[in-house]
Amino acid sequence: MREGLARQLAQGGYAVEQASTGFAAGAAAARFEPDLVVLSADSADGGEVLSGLRADRELREVPVVAVGRAEWTSSLTEAGCSVVLARPLADGALLEAAGGVLAVSSSSRARS
Q: Could you state, in order of their start, the residue ranges of all structural domains in the chain?
């Protein structure tokens, strides 16, 4: 799943840094200073990756697009995801969500 998501983003022109679960993902996020995190959610609360991002002072405001089960949408949103996409993804859904979230994030930063 992670490989497919990364491939879609790279084909859309985004710079992509991949990480596995847990500590490695948090360390990669801190090192890469992402504009957006795409999370392949393995639980309704986003697991330790999402909780780690939201607890980190420098990463808590980074928007997260989660890909997970449809029934997890409200839980993932409450846990701090900007957008939740249900599996299986429709063609172009990830790129559309990433572009939309980044546009909102950019305009918010410009106003600050």
A: 2-91
